[in-house]
Design goal:
heterodimer; A: 320 residues; alpha/beta; Rossmann fold; Alpha-Beta Plaits; six-stranded mixed β-sheet; 14 strands; 35% helix; globular; B: 257 residues; mainly alpha; 12 helices; elongated
Chain lengths: 320, 257
């Protein structure tokens, strides 16, 4: 059986101020997977990835990358890792091309090998025309793509993306998704953290949700969504209404004069709701999910976990 | 990493450091040459002619080795301190930390890069001094050995300073309050033989005195202290400080949470 791309056992991190960021988590990511690590701010996602990429020192536990224990041979494990952090972490005054080539040098890549590889990546990520310019002149989205190019220069087998599309416009985000899906199809295992749950739902096959330093869910996206009990749809009406209609078996709220929110439980049929709307003379012109399905699941899970542990329910941050 | 990959990583880091200070040469290479020109004009030509010879050597000739060494010390130290701290501040140090590059290569890369700036500035000051006096080097190997070792030692010092620094102020404290006084009191402008016995004894605990005098011995053939002992002391300091810097890096002091 192939070694997992990433295997974590009993990973614990207690910071110097006593904050227990990770409470002995276990996690496996299979080779070739597109894996999402989700959680609210401060849940422990970046700490986990920081330990895997050597930026944070663990307190206890073990981490293996393709079977290589980082305590035994971290240098060897690092050859398999590419890391795209949340914050920009390159010298803003250096040239775009130099940033990528310097990183190749840190991995011991000869220039004759690094140059064509850098050209290919910069072209793929739409940065080739900017290669001679200073990195500080790039837009936010370009800077994120530069970090992806830098992380891929040494052909890692496992790419860690910590909120890679934060602050990136929709068009650019979609082009980055296509790029990530392509390299995943070509064999690179990807671990992604994101607050855009639509991103996790459409890209990832497996998912772990971390909250207050514990893994509260670790399953496939499909299985997770199957647990979703209720979906809420926003219905746009042809004519304004004063009050929400009463539908048998369904919950309907009036959002504003021309919009209603319809909650549909698992097992219920939308047709039944629409039949009742028609019978009461409501004309519906369009419909969409109020929130992304994974988002609903994520919020309910985190709130459920908080309630079980007796914590106050934090506001869970999601972006869609 | 095999030996060839390690060499590529080290070369990459050194060239990156050299590229950095060459890119900002008006801040890194030009100011020391202007400052030292002022020293030569004021202390060498204008005041020096009234001071008379020091250890039977014309005063301007006497101060040249000390001024070169002063430039080497301050530039080696400040280059690494500011460059590595900037890497910490901008978090670009993470580029190195996530790579398989061994910590000794990171330390050596910054140290060699910083020493190269110290030596480049030392060379510029030497060229400037030739406009004011005729230099002839009595012991070339001692001169070269001392200046290289001094540049390496203070580069390591700058690296350790940057590792423990939390803000930019922290990397200016040592150069202002430690290096500059020790350099001025290290026999750059005078022979310690001029001092009363007590202050001669105090001066002997100043490590920069040994470097300045060993370098002066290399150029002028005169020294206040035994040169062999000075060379050994500098070499020991290099080994001890390099080991300390590496120990701190291995434990992630100042760079890992």
């Amino acid at each position: 059986m192939a070694e997992p791309a990433l295997s974590i056992r009993g990973l614990t991190k207690v910071y110097g101020n006593g904050f227990n960021a990770l409470k002995g988590i276990d996690l496996d990511v299979a080779e070739g997977d597109f894996f999402a690590l989700l959680g609210p701010n401060g849940a422990g996602k970046s700490t986990t990835l920081g330990i895997v990429s050597s930026l944070v020192q663990k307190t206890a536990g073990s981490v293996s990358v393709f079977g290589i224990d980082i305590d035994r041979d971290f240098a060897k494990a690092k050859y398999h890792l590419g890391v795209v952090p949340q914050e920009f972490n390159f010298n803003q005054f250096e040239k775009v091309e130099d940033i990528v080539l310097t990183q190749a040098g840190y991995y011991g890549m000869p220039m004759r090998e690094a140059k064509p590889r850098a050209e290919q990546l910069l072209r793929d990520l739409g940065l080739w025309d900017k290669r001679k310019g200073s990195a500080r002149m790039l837009s936010g989205g370009m800077k994120r793509r530069l970090m992806i190019a830098r992380a891929l220069i040494h052909r890692p087998r496992l790419l860690i993306l910590d909120e890679p599309t934060a602050g990136v416009d929709i068009e650019l985000r979609r082009s980055m998704w296509e790029f990530m899906q392509r390299i995943n199809r070509e064999g690179t295992t990807i671990i992604l953290t994101t607050h855009y749950l639509e991103e996790a739902e459409s890209l990832c096959r497996n998912i772990a949700i971390i909250n207050h330093g514990d893994i509260v869910q670790n399953t496939s996206v499909r299985d997770l969504l199957a647990q979703l009990n209720t979906e809420t749809f926003l219905l746009d009406l042809a004519r304004p209404v004063e009050t929400a209609p009463e539908l048998e078996g369904f919950s309907v709220e009036r959002v504003d004069a021309t919009q209603l929110a319809l909650s549909v439980a698992r097992g219920q049929r939308l047709n039944d709701a629409f039949a009742q709307f028609s019978a009461q003379g409501f004309e519906i012109v369009s419909m969409r999910n109020r929130a992304n399905r994974l988002e609903e699941m994520f919020v309910s899970m985190v709130e459920h976990a908080n309630a079980e542990s007796g914590r106050s329910t934090d506001k869970v941050e999601v972006r869609s | 990493m095999n030996a060839w990959q390690t060499w590529i990583a080290l070369w990459t880091l050194v060239t990156k450091e050299v590229r950095r200070y060459m890119r900002i040469w008006p801040q890194t290479l030009l100011p020391p040459s202007i400052t030292m020109t002022m020293y030569f004009i004021i202390f060498g030509n204008l005041i020096g002619s009234r001071i008379g010879p020091m250890d039977d050597i014309p005063y301007i000739d006497y101060i040249v080795p000390g001024l070169i060494m002063m430039a080497v010390i301050t530039n080696s130290y400040s280059n690494v301190a500011s460059s590595f701290f900037s890497n910490k501040f901008q978090r670009s140090v993470e580029e190195m930390m996530v790579s398989p590059m061994p910590n000794w290569v990171i330390l050596a890369g910054f140290v060699v890069g910083g020493a190269s700036r110290g030596l480049a500035v030392g060379l510029i000051v030497t060229v400037v001094s030739m406009f004011f006096t005729d230099l002839s080097i009595h012991h070339p190997w001692v001169t070269i050995g001392v200046v290289i070792m001094t540049a390496l030692l203070f580069s390591i010092g700058g690296f350790i300073n940057a590792l423990v620094a939390h803000k930019f102020d922290d990397i200016s404290i040592v150069p202002i309050f430690v290096l500059t006084p020790l350099t001025y009191l290290g026999g750059v402008f005078y022979s310690i033989n001029m001092l009363p016995n007590f202050w001669q004894g105090v001066s002997m605990v100043n490590p920069i005195l040994y470097m300045v005098n060993a370098f002066r011995y290399g150029i002028l053939g005169v020294s206040d202290i035994p040169v062999g002992g000075a060379l050994v002391a500098i070499a020991v300091f290099i080994v001890v400080f390099f080991a300390l810097g590496l120990w701190m890096l291995d434990r992630g002091k100042g760079i890992r949470s």
